[in-house]
Amino acid sequence: MFHKIGAGGYIEPPFHTDYGTNTTIGQHFYANYDAIFVDVNRITIGDNVFMGPRVGLYTAGHPIDAAIRAEELEYAGRLQSVMTFGLAVTWSSIRASRLEVTS
Question: From the candidates 3, 16, 28, 62, which is the catalytic residue?
Answer without folding.
Answer: 62
